[in-house]
Amino acid sequence: MHKKLAELAALTTVPVLAAGLAGCGLQSGSGSEGGLDVNRVRVVLGSSSTTADTYQNSHAFTTHVGDELGVGMKADAIGANKAFQALDSAKTDGSTIMFFHDMAYLSVKYGAQPEKFALENWKVGPMVSTNPGAAFLAADEAPYDTLAQAATWLKDNPGEDLTFAVEAGGTSELSLDAFYIWVKDKYGTKIAERIKILATGSDEKKNQALWAGNVDIIYGSIAGNEQYTKGDVKDKVKEKFLGITASKPVEGYDIPTFKQQGIKIDGAPFTFDKEFFLLMPKDIDKGFRQALDEATAKAIKTDAYVEELKKNKFVPNYVPIEQSREYIEQKRERLESIIDQAPEFSDLVG
Question: In terms of domains, do 171 and 268 share one?
Fold first, then answer.
């Protein structure tokens, strides 16, 4: 856009956005440092994919919460490293916030991110949604139909390994850790040690690794991988679900949970619901965070928000700012106890 046109657009846009902010209790000229500049909010994502669940959930958030708040919100899929760095240098006016899931804190525990990016150094925003369809998949021709069957197959075929496509420091590593610990407890260390890892990043790369025959099992989701399980898919790329980590089955799908397959940690069924939430600078402007929380609470109840989540098999799961930190910290404590029992990532890389 030419400079003159940009200036004209700014002059005509700001009053409209300011009016929207006033409806949420945020008015131009209020707040610290001479005003609250939130005409545009950059929502950095911990994922670089524009097709996977983080982006899909963030699109619903930025569209509907942005409308409710009266500002232009845009998701920026730059990946975890760049997103944390952007948040670390962000202003306190709310112009940059982060949208991600449990990997935000798991990555610190795993050592994939430094301690300075731990939850304690951010203001935890509202939780907004859940992806109950986080899943493991295999090629359609694989000789097992569930993860429990894959473990039995591994036991019965001593010359074989099971190689998983996993991203270091994330939800896929956590879910594999749970499977590894269960296999070790049930069948012994020698069997479990034949579980291997191919370190991969995005869901697209995991799929490519499976299709190329470089791995046996990948971590994906119902929303992202269902298209490859259809009857008319070419054999080379056809996949099947082996199990989901969610605490209960997903309606309309015959995919067993870890719990239904008897996968346990310390005698209790392993469950993991992948949940999405906001992170903000620790000293974020109080007016902004209150307005954001209020706008989220309103938007997430609308039919439009719920339907956008539903079409991708996600569900709304609002936890307000005043409760979100305690909720996530309790969940983190439970999951970290699993990580402490698991082998090092590097020890499993085949």
Answer: yes
